[in-house]
Amino acid sequence: MEKKNIELLAPAGSWEALEAAVNAGADAVYMGGKAFGARAYASNFDEEQMAKAVYFAHMHHVRLYITVNTLVDDSELPELAEYLRFLSNVGVDGIIVQDLGVIRLAQKIVPELPLHASTQMTITNSSGVDFAIAAGMERSVLARELSLKEIAAACNRGTEIETFIHGALCVCYSGQCLMSSLIGGRSGNRGRCAQPCRLPYKLLNDNDEDMLQGKDAGQYLLSPKDINTLGILPQLIEAGVVSYKIEGRMKRPEYVAVVVDAYRRAIDSYLAGDYQVPAEDYANIEQIFNRDFTTAYMEKRPGRTMMSDRRPNNRGVLIGRVAKLDKQRNKAVIKLDKELHLGDGLEFWVSVGGRVGTTVTEMLRQGQSVQSAAAGEQVTIDVPNGVRLNDRVFRTLDSRLMSYAQQFFGQDAKKRIPVDAVVTARLGEPMSVVLTDDEGNVGYGETEFIVEEARKRALDDAVVYKQIDRLGTTEYFLNSLRFEHDVNVMVPMSEMNEARRMACEALDAARLEAFAPARKPVHRVTEQLVPNAHKVRHNEAVLTVHCDSVKKVNVALQAGAERILFGGDCFNHQLPTEADYTKVAQLVQKEGRELAFATPRIVKEAQLGYFDKLFALWESLQPDYVYINNNGLWLLAKKYALKLVADISLNLFNSQTLQFWGEQGAKGAVLSAELTMAQVEHLASVSPLPLECMIQGRLEMMVSEYCVGGSFLGELDKGACRFNCGEQLYLGDRKDARFPIATDQFCRMHVLNAHELSMVANVQHMQEIGVASLRIDGREYETGRLGELVALYRKVLGGALEAPENLPGTTRGHYFRGVM
Description:
- Helix content is 28%, strand content 24%.
- The protein is an alpha/beta fold.
- The radius of gyration is 31 Å and the shape is globular.
- 50% of the residues are buried.
């Protein structure tokens, strides 16, 4: 693969990180603005800084992508439209997008701005890549759960593929996590994830017994290690990946510098035909930040070996142990396994109380003060209280590595472009300055002043060089200068400076145009951003019940369900058979009710053939609707005579998204669980599609390829899983909340909310504002309880029973609190 087809993509959450990325060798940088980006807590860039960043990056022939990858509310669409206009006009090279409504809007108002499908779009198979292409994406960022084989399949779809190669992992499929919003109101889909996966949890059974008590396991059961692909980078390149993405917009610039520097050399060594990664690069990568490392799912299903269950943050590098201890003087002798320097930051993993830290300000070796000590030596240093004999010592900050990294950013680290100058001074003519860069781009400037004979001191090479070399505020440095002149000529210094400035500006323009030709400017946005409201018909809403067994279907029908939604992610961890679908169709159609089938949220490459056959079966059973939860199944399902509904996992948050799905042929849409009642009412008044909302059941907080039960109780990392999926488990948090764990038919883990959603007191209002279908999620209920709930809602919706207060121990979700 040619170098031009490989892009090393670095993060930048600050100006210093941007400099570090460019100077360390990134081909492209991604960063966020002050809004609409999935890292709202990074420093990020305002419009003035972003314009400066585009100039800086493009001058060094580095592409700049902007994250616009949050879900957007209708009230934010005017601001979004102006922001998109600014991004197109300022010349960014593309935007990374999650929300299909943002995609639709961008295509209408900034058609020349390239769009990249964010990992938040949950693209899990090659058909999902096809969907992204059809939606107008030039690049797809794959889910981080794919194997090398699955990545290779995605790379064969005729578009650019981007994958994460280093940095933090989400335990949940990106774009499918509601954990932060349901626990604390801070939505990961809106860029404000509070990272609850990095908190401690217990693994409990029905009796509240800790299933990991006495086992070799930590408490951070949802905290993955960081991904590190230096060992398998050749396989990724050979799979056909175009863009290699480093995670870390919240990280320090030193982190960006060290990681980009190592991966730059690794990629270049592959392209040179001899792939090698020096041991020093592995060590530097580990030292700058690590939770220990994994290749995630690229090579195998890793189980517990993927998890950093003992520590959710930087663990540093083990450098030795406490060999002797003087508690009275707070001094310790450390036997070193690695070298140590003054200024290094250390942590002692103490047996009681966790960890205590210090910075090495003085170090004695055999009684003599030293600046550094080598592996195998023993040194005496000051230590904090709590340190004990034999405690392990970790270096969390390497002073020498930090100094090395800091060379990549700041004024002294400026990566400059060489220019050759030709200055011409002929009597009776303006002086000209011609600057030529290393790629042949040319900038020209000349003086207004006409060259005269010198009255005192004539210009010479040294004087001209001194003036032309004043390039400190530019991106250039003077590589060579040729001064062509008549004898005894003079030009004022101020005129020479002005000609140099003009030449630099002209060279800037030529260099920028050669790298990224200007787009047509986008003027005032005239696109209608929100459709006109229409009169809502107050028809009785359809009561939809989601079931994952034939028995539950029977119970729901008898209790008054008007639409049965069957299949999808089945929490009884049983794959429905052809006979099950046929039986459900017979039962529902016999009762004269509406029949709908559901697909799972996650569909892997090897399952596409199965779903193709399943759609053919469903077509023969003539359901009223098919609910699509995975974008990779949309185009597949459209080959059949099926009425498709865009389901809840597709994150429908605004009217532009509803219009998008209407244009794709959808017959209905299920709104995001993160919307408020006011937002639902507004969308019902402008939607081109019938809308459905969740009203009862445990909302899914996350879906994960990782299964905590199989990983810690089933020895999944050793091969076949021995865990009994029928055993109900819970994650218990620090506040004694219990989150049920459900395992589906594909062995994926679903973490459910600790409290059931219950809107029984509000369903009549939801019916009145125009919500066409109200869904009870019955997959987690026992059949008896499900029948009671369906009967209750049927009576309330039909007016046979006055709406009671919400059921005890339940939640109204986000309907009356919303999300940040």
